[in-house]
């Protein structure tokens, strides 16, 4: 599977989340900088969603490959704002090497 550079860069800002969604499939993706707008983050997440759907569309039962759990609504100029998404296999298996291991 060919992974575009913009997806790899997005995954470098991602980390696995415990206690939110399906373990092993749910990640949080931080804003690029504390001064980025949440609208920019939302655009990046929507672009990720389009790519995931293009690579692996929904199955016959309508089960989605990617679920957006949370996107912030209001910008705060802190590094703590992030979106939470769940991406299922086989796409997550390909993205996993680019995701940070949270300590």
Low-confidence parts lasting 5 or more residues at pLDDT below 50? Answer: none
What general form does the structure show? Answer: globular
Average pLDDT level = 89
Radius of gyration: 13 Å
How many beta strands in the DSSP annotation? 4
Order of helices and strands: HEEHEEH
How do you describe this structure in short?
The chain is α+β, with helices and mostly antiparallel strands and 103 residues long. The protein has helices spanning 5-11, 38-55, 91-95; strands spanning 14-16, 26-30, 66-70, 82-87.
List the helices and strands and how they pair.
Elements: H1 5-11, E1 14-16, E2 26-30, H2 38-55, E3 66-70, E4 82-87, H3 91-95
Antiparallel strand pairs: 1-2, 2-4, 3-4
Polypeptide structure, described:
With 103 residues, this protein is an alpha+beta fold. The chain has one domain. 29% of the residues lie in helices and 18% in strands. A four-stranded antiparallel β-sheet has the order 1-2-4-3, with helices on one face. The radius of gyration is 13 Å and the shape is globular. The termini are far apart.
Note the main attributes of this structure.
globular, alpha+beta, 4 strands
